[in-house]
């Protein structure tokens, strides 16, 4: 009986210890939540240096194009009536279709290097595949990225600065290929933020996380608007005494 009580006691202690220890999933969730907060802190710090603040964009497949449209309206490059993701999507797709050699080498082939009948060039899109890709960018909610940002900087003739939590903190897409100071507050440029962890497990429900993951929505873009004049003055006063 004593042996039995000892066994039960040990079993209870083991069960209690197991309950107190985080599971693999909870540990992973905690790591994602920590990374999300770290990324947000780094982006906010760069925003403070630039005198801008995040303007939240709807987290859907159009977020990149909506963020850039918002910036183009602020810069008076597009009238408000045209500053929407549909206009910007069409501009990016049309430019890419007219300049395939500038983009095809940087967009993976649909079949990939290990596809059936792979050749030395199988990692490069065919002309037909590239056309389909551009039509998806223009006509659907397909996610955009570096190629589309580069295309839009050239279409509208304005640098696009992407603030992120990684290194470098500001990625510059300049249509003139000249060296610009990305921290120049007076530089005429479109400024957006890129969030790799915007919708980490620590910020949304499990059901929504599954849905967003299916859309690759862990990654997100926002527009960066100038801070209120009073906030800018406050920043300057603080910098004098720092």
Automatic annotation (TrEMBL):
InterPro entries listed in its UniProt record: OTU_dom, Papain-like_cys_pep_sf, Peptidase_C85-like
Signal sequence range: none
Lineage: Eukaryota, Fungi, Dikarya, Basidiomycota, Agaricomycotina
Gene Ontology biological-process entries: protein deubiquitination
Pfam families: OTU (PF02338)
PROSITE patterns assigned: OTU (PS50802)
Molecular-function annotations in GO: cysteine-type deubiquitinase activity
Name assigned to this protein: OTU domain-containing protein
Domain OTU: 52-227
């Amino acid at each position: 009986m004593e042996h039995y009580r000892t066994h039960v006691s040990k079993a209870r202690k083991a069960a209690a210890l197991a309950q107190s220890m985080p599971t693999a999933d909870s540990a992973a969730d905690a790591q994602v939540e920590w990374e999300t907060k770290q990324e947000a802190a780094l982006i906010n710090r760069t925003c403070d240096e630039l005198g801008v603040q995040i303007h939240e964009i709807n987290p859907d497949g159009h977020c990149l194009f909506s963020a850039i449209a918002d910036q183009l309206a602020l810069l008076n490059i597009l009238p408000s009536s045209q500053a929407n993701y549909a206009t910007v999507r069409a501009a990016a797709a049309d430019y890419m279709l007219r300049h395939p050699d500038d983009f095809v080498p940087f967009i993976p082939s649909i079949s990939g290097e290990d596809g059936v009948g792979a050749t030395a060039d199988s990692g490069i899109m065919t002309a037909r595949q590239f056309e389909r890709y551009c039509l998806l960018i223009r006509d659907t909610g397909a996610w955009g990225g570096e190629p589309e940002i580069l295309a839009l900087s050239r279409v509208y003739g304005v640098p696009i600065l992407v603030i992120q939590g990684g290194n470098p903190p500001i990625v510059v897409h300049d249509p003139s290929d000249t060296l610009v100071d990305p921290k120049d507050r007076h530089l005429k440029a479109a400024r957006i933020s890129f969030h790799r962890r915007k919708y980490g497990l620590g910020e949304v429900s499990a059901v929504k996380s599954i849905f967003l993951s299916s859309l690759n929505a862990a990654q997100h873009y926002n527009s960066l608007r100038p801070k209120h004049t009073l906030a800018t003055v406050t920043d300057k006063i603080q910098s004098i005494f720092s």
